[in-house]
Amino acid sequence: MGTGDPFGMPVTHIMTAGMGGIRTAGDLVAWMQMTRRMKLADAKGYVAEKLGVDVMDLVDEDVMYPLRKELGIGTVTPEAGGPEGILAKCRVADLLDIEINSVNRFKAQMAK
User: Fold this and answer.
1) What is the pLDDT of residues 46-67, one digit of tens each?
2) Taking the CA of residue 37 as centre, how many other CA atoms within 13 Å lie in the half-sphere pointing to its CB?
3) Does 5 reside within a domain?
4) 1 in a domain, yes or no?
5) Cβ distance 68 to 49 under 8 Å?
6) Which residues contact 97 (CB under 8 A, 6 or more apart)?
7) Helix 40-51 crosses helix 26-36 at what angle (to 10 degrees)?
8) In contact, 91 and 71? CB cutoff 8 Å
């Protein structure tokens, strides 16, 4: 008995989520849905406004990669000396004006 397609579920999820995560702005939109309980359209509008782009640009890698790099909010392929990890997450929290628990704990540790 076979196990089926081992990539069936991840591919299905990626295709239905459709915003590309950190490749575009899918992670930022998801933050707004989780932290502010925004509906998808509202979350996309909020993120687009904060980034200064059109909603349609949120899924365009050619627009989002240089913008994410410029803002220091993380990219799929980090470059030497570029922000990653908690630093990128701190910048996301500031950019979107949201509370992220790990960022708050990091800042508290740095204040000690």
Assistant:
1) 999 999 999 999 999 999 999 9
2) 0
3) no
4) no
5) no
6) 50
7) 120
8) yes
